Amino acid sequence: MGWLFRLFVWGFVILYAAALLAYGAGTFGWAGVEKDPLSGIFLILLGQPWVILFEVLPEFVRPVVAVLAPLANLAILVGIFRLVGRRTN
Hints:
The protein is mostly helical. The chain contains four helices and no strands. It is flat, with a radius of gyration of 15 Å.
C-alpha cells in the first residue's frame, strides 16, 4: 500500500512540474513555442478546489494562485501519506 501511495504522490509531482513547464513555455514563449492564453489550464486543474475558492481575488493575483494552488494539494497528499504511514507501523 505504501509504495502505491508513494507512486501517486510522485506522479502528482511530475504532473505539476510538467504543468509548470507548459505554463512557462506558453506564457513566455520558451523554446520557440507560440504564446498561448490557455497554457495554465493544467495548473488550474491540478489546483482544484483552491483556484475556485480564490476566484474573488483581483485579476493580477490569479496567475500566482494558479501556480501555487497545486502545492496545497501536494501538501495534503504528503500529510495523508505520513498519517497513513504512522498508522500502519
